[in-house]
Design a protein that fits this description.
The N and C termini lie far apart (48 Å). The strands form 2 sheets. The protein has a 7-stranded mixed β-sheet, with helices on both faces. It has a 5-stranded antiparallel β-sheet with strand order 11-10-9-8-12, with no helix packed on it. By secondary structure, it is an alpha+beta fold. The chain has 6 helices and 12 strands. A hairpin with a 3-residue loop joins β4 and β5. The protein is globular and about 50 Å long. It binds biotin. The site of biotin has 20 residues, from α1, β3, β6 and β7.
């Protein structure tokens, strides 16, 4: 049985695994990971609803209290999608990329969403939804089942995720993670034209890369712009 640094909680039904950790952050330990079979109020970025069929997918959140990780919390948004990238690759999924800042895509469809909630310097909550055995999908989404035509055992996948997060968080905390290489070289938006809103103004530009602060580099009318995820509302054209 796996018994390393992750403290595992399995819940049958909850409003949201992220809300659960936020509400219990003071009493729970660093690296508590909570999985739910079903969420009644799963949420994503921009207040979007995250819907998922019961017992079909990986819905989990991880509580981080480790000072070494919290001190570089601004890099977590790039680090987490690379952990999911590795998880999907270990399941033999091909054509995986990361749509900045932190959606994980297979070809042109979203397979995983990530949301971060933090109260620094106290804690960070990483919320992750991965479509595993999901059959009911939006046209813009996919699942491992859709890609491989094979259903996975969710209990085994939970364990794989715990081991992977434990190892990758250790490396990130110790400053020896390869995440930036993975993040930079699997950039879904690279060379694509995007439109974005900065301070109420709509602009367009071609994505030329990601810098070492995980910010997006865009060429807009010959000018290089650096976009931060918090400040920008992005849409691919
Ligand atoms: C997004 O794509 O905007 C992020 C979606 C994140 C969904 C996950 S599911 C587990 C965790 N609990 C939540 O309420 N949200 C995250």
């Amino acid at each position: 049985m796996y018994n390393d640094d992750m403290h595992i909680i399995n819940l049958d039904e909850i409003n949201s695994t992220s809300s659960y950790l936020i509400n219990n952050s003071s009493s729970l330990e660093d690296r508590t990971i909570v999985f739910a079979s079903y969420q009644t109020k799963g949420y994503g970025r921009y207040d979007r609803v995250w819907q998922s069929s019961k017992d079909s997918n990986l819905l989990f959140s991880v509580l981080i209290k480790d000072e070494k990780i919290l001190s570089k919390a601004e890099l977590i948004s790039g680090f987490i999608p690379t952990v999911i990238f590795k998880y999907l690759r270990s399941n033999n999924i091909s054509d995986i990329s990361i749509k900045w800042p932190n959606d994980v895509y297979v070809k042109d469809k979203k397979i995983c969403g990530i949301i971060l909630n933090s109260k620094l310097p106290e804690y960070l909550v990483i919320g992750v939804g991965i479509n595993v055995n999901e059959e009911i999908l939006l046209p813009t989404a996919t699942s491992i089942y859709k890609e491989k035509e094979k259903k996975l055992d969710i209990s085994k996948e939970k364990l794989d995720i715990c081991v992977l997060f434990d190892n990758e968080l250790d490396k990130f905390s110790n400053g020896c993670s390869d995440y930036f290489e993975v993040y930079k070289s699997n950039n879904y938006l690279l060379n694509k034209t995007i439109s974005f809103e900065v301070l109420g103004q709509i602009k367009t530009g071609i994505v030329t890369g990601i810098n070492c602060d995980n910010k997006l580099i865009v060429n807009s009318n010959g000018k290089e712009l650096i976009l931060s995820s918090g400040e920008v509302n992005l849409s691919k054209r």
